[in-house]
Structures are given as C-alpha cells and as structure tokens.
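Researcher: Go.
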Amino acid sequence: MKHSQLLSVLLPVNINYPFTYSCTEPLEVGTIVKVSFRNREVYGVVWSHDDLEKNFDQDRIKAIITNKIGDDSIVLPEDLINFLNWVSGYYMMPLGLVLKAAFKKQFFEKRIKKKIYYNYNPTSHSKITKKQEMVVELFREHMALDKNKIMSLSGLSSNVVMRMIKNNTLKVTESYEPPEDKIYLETKIDFTPEQNHTMEEVLASLKEQKVTLIDGITGSGKTELYLEAARRVLKQDKQVLIMLPEITLTQQFIKIFRSRFKNQIGEWHSGMSEGNRKQVWFDTLNKKNRLIVGARSSLFLPFADLGLIVVDEEHDQSYKQDEGIIYNARDMAVLRAKQLKASCILSSATPSVETFENVISKKFNRAILNKRFYGTKLPAISCIDMRDAEKGMNSFLPKEIIEDIQKTKEKNEQSLLFLNRRGYSPLSLCGNCGVRVDCPDCDAWLVLHKNTSRYKCHYCGHTQKSDLKCKNCHSSDNIIQTGLGIEKIDEELGRLFPKMSKIIFSSDYLPSAASLSSALRRIEENRVDLIIGTQLISKGHNFPNLTYVGIMDADFGLELTDIRASERTFQILNQVSGRAGRVKRDSSVKIMTHMPDHQLLQSLINNQREEFYNTELKMRYTSRMPPFARLVAIIISSKNRKLLQDYSQKLGKINNFPKDIELYGPIEAPISRLRKHHRQRFLIRGSKNCNIQLYVKRWLDSYKVPPQIRITIDVDPQYFL
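Model: Structure:
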C-alpha cells in the first residue's frame, strides 16, 4: 500500500486559504488537480506540500480525484503562483478569488477539438460554381486547410464551404499534420532620426531591466518603438505581453500586430468565446503563442517564458478593476516584470502622475518623443468663452463651432465633437413638482437614451420606458429634459447639417467588435463628415482625415474635488485633442468653457505639460496624497440602513492604528445607495513606505462583521464614489 502524501490545494472560490487533501504520488506545486469540495467536483491547484507532523485525522482527509487533464498533467509556472500570492496580499483579496482570475474550470472539462483539414478532390463529379472555383484556387498553393482558414482566405460563407464538403468536392486529409507557422521577425521600420535616438534609449534601459516610460506626444510613433523592442525580445525566443486598456483597442491593434508578426499571436479579453480563451490559455502555457495582446486580465495567463510586458496608454483608468478582484493592472505589470526579471515598457502621451513621479525620482527611465511621425504640428488649441459666445442658427452651439464645421467639410476633412456624457439628457425633471427621474435601486439620476426610448441608470444598468409618470405627482405630460448628452448633440448636428454624414462613437452605439470595426473603417475611408464621441474616441485611434475637434463642457472635470480630477481632465482633453491632424494636415481644437483662464486649460493651450505635472505633484505633496502617501478605501454596504450605520459607527470608534496612519470616516458615500445597498465609506491614509495592509486587516478583524454587511477593500483607490 502506497503512503499518502498531504497536499494543500487552493480552490478558485471566495476563500483565503487552501484545503488539505491526500495523494498517493508526489505532485509538483502548481499541479492542477480535480477534488471533491462541498459535494461537487472542482479543479484546484497544489499550493504547497502540507506539514506531515500536523495532527490530522487521516480518515477524514479526502484524496484528490485525479491530477490528469485528459492524458496529461498540467503544472502552473512557479512565477504565476508567486504573483497570485502577491496580488492577494497587496490588495487584501481572498487568495481563492485571485486564483479564479488565472483559469476557469471549463478549460479542463472538455478537450480541445482537433482541427479537421481538407483538400480538393479532383475525382469529384460535382459541378464547380464561380464561388467554389475560388476555393479550388487556394489548393494550388496549400496542401490542406481547415474550414475556418478556407473561409478567411476565400472570403466565402460557411454554407459554400459546407456544400463543397457535402458534395465531396473537398475531402478530409486524415494524416495531414500542418507545419508550425513561425512568428515573423524580419520586418524593419524606417524610423525618423528622433525615433532612432529614442529607440537607443529604450534598448539601453531594457538591458538594465529598468521600467521604461516611452513618453511621446500624440501621433509620435510610440507604438512602432515598443513593437521594435518586442521584436528584439521575441528574437531571444521569449514571450511578449502587450496590454491595452480596452477591448476596442485590442481589435484594432491585433490587425497591426498580425501584419507585422504574422503568426504565434494570441489575443485575450472578455469578448472572446470560451473555446478561444481555452486555446489561448494552453498555447500560452505551451509557448505556442509568442506574442499576447490583451486587456488587463491577460496578466494572469500562465506564461512559459515571458521576457517583456508593454502597458500601452498606461495612464488609462480602465487598467483599474473596481469589481471582483480590485487591482491596478499597470502596477501589477510592473511587479510581474520585476518578479520575472523581465523588461517592462509603459507608453503614454499623458503619463499618470504616479509614473511621472517615478521618472523624476529615477525609479523609471524615460524615453521622449517630441515630434509627430508624419511631420505635422500639434493642433492649435484655443478656448471659446461660453459666457459671451455668440450662438448660431437658434442653436445651443456657438456660431464659431458651426462655421468651423462647415469650413472643415468644404476641405473634405472631418470634424469631431467630443462630450463625455452618454445618452440624450443626463437629468429629467417633472415640470409640475420638480421631482427628478431617478433610479429606484441607486442614489443616481436616470439618463434618457432616445435611441432605445428608455431611461437607464449608468451605475447599475436598471432601465425603464421613456413614457413614464412622475413618481410624486403622477403626471406624464410634463417631464423636462435638462443638460446635454451626445444624442442631443447628434440631433442638433442633424438639424444644422442635414446633408452631412455622421456617426456616434460611443459604447451604446458600438457594442460589439464588428460594429466598432465597421465604424473605424467608415471614418478611415472618409465616409463620415461628423463624429460625435465620448471618451471611447480618445483611446489611441488614428483618423487620417480628422482635422477639427470641438470639446464641449470642458468645465465639468475642473470643478470636481476628487484628487485625480485635474489629472484625468488634462489627460482626456489632451488625448481627444491629439486625434486631430495626425497625417500631413494642419488642425485645430476649440474648447468650450466658462473658465478660459483656468490654469489647467492654459497648460493645455500653451503645451506646458511639464508645468502641469510639476504643479500637480506639488499639490499632492502638500496635501499628503498619492504618490507621496498610501490610501486604502473601505466601502461598507448593506440593504439594512440602520444596521449599516450602527456597525460603521462602532467600527469607526475602534481606531487602533499607529500614529502615522490616519482613519477618516465613517461618512455616507457620495452615491449613498447602489444596487439597493446603502453605503458608508472610510478612508485610511499612511506614509508612503508603511505596511498599511497589516494595520487595516488588524482593524477590520477587531469587530465581527454581521452576515448582512458587505465590506469592500480598495487599496490605492482611483475613485471615491
């Protein structure tokens, strides 16, 4: 009889510790195993070998069911396990929940289907149509192809290919094994003199294994630089991860990367099918994928030999995940590269304040690009003072904007109006009693979306029909729409310019990768005169014919008290402005504001970027805010308001923090109710180098949490709602 070995197995559940199981054979740490847990079978990971001296009742310890996935054992890399441990500890997230980000049980339940390859059957007596002749032509160059490859190369539908298979025009090639298509690494780019100089700085920094910021103005060719760095790392037979902040960018950039590197490229984001995600997961583990292009969750993939991580648009707020596992993917990319002794590149035209401070303090290196790739100038930026701006054609739009759009069209160029507000109207009021139309589940207004004839809550997703009655006086014929959303801008532009083609560039109108690709293609081919966009338009897109940008309601971000409001406003105004004039054309940007003399706007107009960052850093230093201090936000929520208030008050009185850590709160959250849960907030501030997590845990553990209370911990918070 074989002696049983005790193993600690971590399961992908909301628990912070592994469970003990037994096994009759030695297993490596990282081995994926199937075990019985609470009357169901689940997959977990051998996290460590348990101490055999522990006083366990051996008869009560369950044996693992199997350590085989199909015929093989699968072992997660040790560096991934170290990374997951670190993420759990730093962000105070349950370890099992962090593991859940690294794999799904569906990856191991079904084997990956083997591809079926076909060849042309010349002995078939079926008549060949014109469309089918396109397929036959393919086999003059290819020995065999699978169905999807036939469709992609020919551009024909599945029905045409299936008919050829059914008619025996295409036959299965049983013994065919496709040659492995290698990644292509011979593409050379003709850099500008400035890019050549900056590239040398990047490569020197990578040799030092120091985090490198490629800090270049919009349109300066930052992407080409980090792709060249990626090419050199790939030539060392290592893997490269390129992170992008949005799925929308992933779809656009994957085409660029495939044209450059051809093969062994994988993409990773939430919009993929389960089957594709499974294939990419295994191909990354087995090093069949050399280059991965992904959203923030791609950090949790099981890389076999990762040599470089690139974080494009590193300033983007989308890298912070605020639900489930709360973490900042940019910061964790820097950490993972450090753990692996790999290189890390951050890229942005508007770096985050934290990254800028890391450059100043010499923790990061910086490579600068000050000229646009095509030799064009940055757009001329000016303000329209809305306090005395002349309105045109009975419109809420300034006459100057209307005339500029008309002149831009006459030059066969494109205009963009930017307003970071979805829907038609952000606030609806009853004209009889003044009561606002709000969400029944949140402390938030409902936003009217005319395209769907519904009101929508932008926090919880609740919707209701637009023909509603006032909840107070029950009148239905006097609901007043106030404020501007992009749909109202679209409606007004349609009235002013009925013959111009236009498109709304917003997630509500471009919900899928296909719709986004179609919109981008129309804009790039100059089949659109007017673009009306939210912040989605600011994320790295390149529109060669766009020469005019009008920014509406720029004052909104200038009036917020959030410590990062100025930074975010500067970044988004800079990024939106940077969409204009990227290819061989002069361009202009007009900012509509009631505060044209505001320091932030003046920094933007006069291209005084360094001055803005230095001013922002001085303000953060004086007020003891990040990056010169540590913050942890605690959100306590419950459907029971009284229980929430009592618990929060009692917890607030236990202030057992050392003197250098300050506790603020409890206070009602700015959004005091979210998804039917009432909310209270605490904020904990400590010195830059203190172990703030240790003291937060001690404080939270000092008072028992009732089951009706939910506690959310946000280390290094970005938002304070």
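Model: The longest strand covers residues 661-674.
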